[in-house]
Amino acid sequence: MTHELLGYIALFAPFVAACVITLFTLRSKATSGGIALAGIVAALVATVLIAVDVFPAEPTTAAYEIEWLAVGGVTIPFGIQIDALSILMSLIVTGVGSCIFLYSTGYMKGEDGYSRYFACLSLFAFSMQGIVFSTNLVQTFMFWELVGVSSYALIGYYFHKPAAVDAGKKAFLTNRIGDFGMTVGILLLFYTLVQASETISGVTASFTFDHIRAIYQDEAIWTQLVQSHETALMWAGLLIFTGAVAKSAQVPLHVWLPDAMEGPTPVSALMHAATMVAAGVYLVARTYFLFAQFEMALHIIAWMGGITALLAAAMAFVQHDIKKVLAYSTLSQLGYMTMALGLLSPVAAMFHLTTHACFKALLFLGSGSVIHGCHHEQDMRQMGGLIKKMPITAWTFWIGTLALAGIFPLAGFWSKDAILSAASLENTWLYGIGVLVALMTAAYMGRCCILTFHGEYRGHAKPHESPATMTIPLVILAVASLFAGLINLPKGFFGRETGGWLEHALVGSAAAPSWSAGLPVEEFHPWVAVWGTVAALAGIVLAVAFYGKRWVSIDRFVSAIKPLHTLLERKYFFDDAYLWLVREVQQRFARLCDFVEVYILRWLVDTVGALHRWVGGQVRLILDGHLHRYVTVALVGAVLILSYVLVGV
Amino acid sequence: MDVLTLLCVIPLAAAGIVAVMPATATKAIKGVATAASGLCLGIALYLFREALVGGEPALIALTESIPRRPWVESLGVSWSVGIDGMSVAMVLLNSIVMFTASLVSGHAIKDRVKEFMVLFLALGAGVFGVFTVKDMFFMYFAFELAVVPMYLLIGVWGSPKDREYAAMKLTLYLTAGALVALVGLLFLYFETWDYLRSIAPSAEAAAQVLPSFHLDDVFAAADSGFFTRAFQVKAFAFLFVGFAAIIPMWPLHTWSPIGHAAAPAAGSMMHAGVLMKLGSFAVLRVAFPACPEGAAYWLPWVALIAMANIVYGGYVAMAQKDLKYVIGFSSSSHMGYTLLGIASVTVIGVSGAVFLMFAHGVMTALTFGLIGFFYDQTHNRWIPDLGGLSHQVPWVATAFALATMASAGVPGFANFVSEFMVMLGAWEAGYHWQAVVAVFGVVITAVYLLRALRDVFFGPRNERWDKLEDAKGVYQKAPFVLLLAILLFFGFWPGPMVRVIEPGVTPIVEKVAKAIEKLERERETGLLESDDANVEARENEEER
Predict the structure, then answer these.
(1) With the C-alpha atoms ordered A118, A124, A129, A132, is the resulting torsion angle positive or negative?
(2) I want to staple B79 with a disulfide (CB 3.0 to 4.6 A). Which of B69, B84, B149, B287 is the partner?
(3) Do B425 and A587 touch (CB under 8 A)?
(4) H/E run at residue A79
(5) How many C-beta neighbours within 10 Å does residue A30 have?
(6) What is the pLDDT of residues A445-493, one digit of tens each?
């Protein structure tokens, strides 16, 4: 089968599953789960079939497009982009997705909306695949929004819980704000190209990535283009990046992600850890040519990532809900990826995205297993000592933790090292932040593990290990978390001559010249690795000191840093600020408009109406049915008209 | 009889049949109404297919094959029908909404079924008339034929609390709007008469020339350059303000939300679904080609007012507690996109506006049909009283959520494509900030729609509504499924609809675009300031 056909299968298989479930099998739970699983596995198989062709060959990129809409000289294509970048991402989405779909069949057992859940989950997989395979900006944007919608439906899955519904709404609206920027960015970019095409030969306006990239990378054209349209092009890039800011939950549009934990845990694992939130990083990697030439844009991206990484990691320390810890951890790791993008290391970002998808999905599913085993208890203060009761969950969770902390030789070590190496070359401040975040990551994850699995059990339920449908995905993902780092061993590590396999595959393909030209091949820097490892170990030691051995009293420590602690607990007041904006600004403005509507516009109209009625009432006094009065009036009128006609008065 | 006349005649004939049927035979009456709407839908689909396969030439050939049938020759009134791609889309919209509304009212209306159906069918016929006739007199007549039944539908079958006020306000507003537009139409009528006299071969022949209400004559006069700019500016203002009251354009919109709110389900469906589209349709059909220079002069202001529609309408919707008012103001906000698309005078923008009229019509019919479905049981639309309804009516809740998503401009529904086209058009026309505001409008829309969705359907079970019944069986679900399917079909595959609309819109856009160019050229060379003087000079010359 051709790549195009396989790509369409990988894209539409989950969609077909969603449609079949919605239309036919809502009543039959087992069938719905089976169909959804079949859909995602079909997509996985199709992706693997393309992957075995694409990865060994010399890197190429191919866009198979059809015309979706053509009107008024504007053509919007729809198609399938096949290159290493999209296939890698699709492998992550369908691979991790398959594990999570399987896990869900166990986790969601007995829920009322079981079929609805799998329909939405399949719809999400479809939307995500749509972003992955998209060949152009408009297609990306459409699936981008669809991801938001399916996220809304899944976060608000427990629709009887107001908190869940509100969380879904918050996610949708925050993403909409990002999409607002993204739409404007797309419009600006497209019409800047339209304008440029009038004066610069070789420029044609298009939404297709490959076309725009070709324009950006043609030196002769680019020099002219940047002379006349530099500001517009830079803003277009940054506005498109706004979409990524919202979807990948970067400060200040990060507020929806922690709340999104109201959804079922497998949803958190799939969307709010492994795939959906990674879409922003993927988008920037896909459109890297839009940013690579603008130093300021890169700076903004890098610093936004660094700040997010730091702020989120600090917030993870004060969480009691096991899923919230993981949520803030996800924020922080996404910050890492964004930072890497801004540091001219899209490969490192994609590498970290890959490994993170494995171990963060593992951690979330592990937490789901814990929650399931403890009968829907999410508070870590009600846990403890679970390693005896649920050994598989505990051990796999520890593997995930060590991978996330970046302990050699687990997956996280390699990808984090790649980012830190890039930072150490480009920006010392961000490098410092990166190392600090590495320490904090190890510390809060150590805290999380110790509180959950060690010490004495503090809850009241009877914890038990989860069924095989849930533990098998844990084991698969744990294996992936152990070895995923091997896909990109850096150059210089034990005398390696070339860069990693992933680097080779990606650099050659997705955005070929703009990625390779001027981008440093990632190299192994022994000192960076050493400092990263020291930071991670120190973090774990700190966690043990505070929570395991209790060498330091936590209460005393907290009271010593009271203001900071409050700041963290209140989430830097971001939520309060937004709430204030919504309540005091938005709602007041709405009420002002309503006031204008009711008391000015409607009043005016009603007054005109009332005036007429009053005149009518007066006239009615004359027209009261007395014939002689009519005749009098008619006569007076006739006389007046006659005198006007005759005399001309 | 030609197929277009048939389109107007079928509902009227059905109304006549229903009128002589015994009032107790409600089932048969509903059957006749549904069958008539179904027939119209069949014709509309046939026309759509013609337009899709044969393209614009097929429609032109169809139009030309239908002769003018003089009615009052001395006044120049004739029965003449014709369509372009734009009208095909609107005819399709009307027949879809009529068909589904007749299905919905089939089980919703229990009181005075006969009278209801007579009026409903007359309303449908009136709307078909506006979309197909090419004679200004009959256009006006058809419009009134649509408005008067609406008055009675609301006044008699509306919600008891506010129906009298709403019916009165709606009718007065629409009639007043139509009167203002009528002044504009009469301007065109007399000026066209002058033109027809001016091209007569001799003075004696000129004295014999009869006036004409026919649009082809008006356009011929306009294309020949007979209408001066001053005249066009004046006539366009009257036409546009009159039509804009129907769109409804801010600040002439206050009749609309309350009209939505008070009407019975089928009434709201027709009102928001098609009645509101008559205004923007008439602007494109009459005002643009007749007064391109007038349009060029006024449209930048229209683009600004469109902002008011979008933003103001959205924020007022945010402050509402009555569900139908939320949707009502939402409609007026969405019509801002239509206005913006029209004001952009680009093929993509105007096509987007027409597409949006279609998509919004279908979406809003769906929304009001669903609201009607549970309002008929709750008799309560006050949002704080509702809540958690998806426990009792999961099917309706799901359909409503999907309609909400369509309204919020989610991809996959036709509304997204059309709004996106409008944004592209606005940007292309150089209305950058207006486009940005329009994009932001999508955020506002999401805010109030998601809030309404949450407050009405989600949250804990509310025992008060335990007696509500969900949609059951094919008969109850069919209209909603049909509407949803259409939105999804054209959302996933907008090509056919756009291919039908675009060729109809293109010549209109070209005319106005040329006028805009001319205006800009003159502004640059400073000729415009002395425009009045120019006109006078030309008139003097003519007199001489």
Answers:
(1) negative
(2) B69
(3) no
(4) strand A74-83
(5) 12
(6) 999 999 999 988 888 888 888 888 888 989 999 999 998 888 888 777 7
